[in-house]
Amino acid sequence: MFTIDNSTEFGARIERQLNDELVIWLTTVGKSGTPQPNPVWFSWNGSEILVFSQPGKAKVHNIADQSRVALNFNATHTGGDVGVITGEAVLDGKPATDEEFAAYNAKYADGMAGLDLTADAFHRDYSVLIRIRPDSLRGF
Q1: CATH number at 9-139
Q2: Domain named Pyridoxamine 5'-phosphate oxidase N-terminal: which ranges (predicted)?
Q3: What residues form DSSP beta bridges with 44?
């Protein structure tokens, strides 16, 4: 099982980023074998990273073909604060739990409002739930 040692400075930073950062870079692998990084909104439920996507997007097709993914946070402009998580992505046909929806919607309320979307409208458009189960963490 994936755990973060938040007793260390690095682990505490990663835990904080998982809870507070608004964007994480999700890298999938295209059919050509080329890595395809995309900035995405996400939430962390303590064991999985949740990403909602519009159907038919490349990342959805890529995950259906190759479930291994990498995620990384923005580093500082001098290359510090690097955190890279790898794991398995699953296209989940079941909806998020009420608790997961509530956490995600609270985190992105301002972003959704900026897009002139209600939470319900956002989730109708971004209807594909991607659950990422981390298995490793590296960085500095």
Answers
A1: 2.30.110.10
A2: 13-135
A3: 49
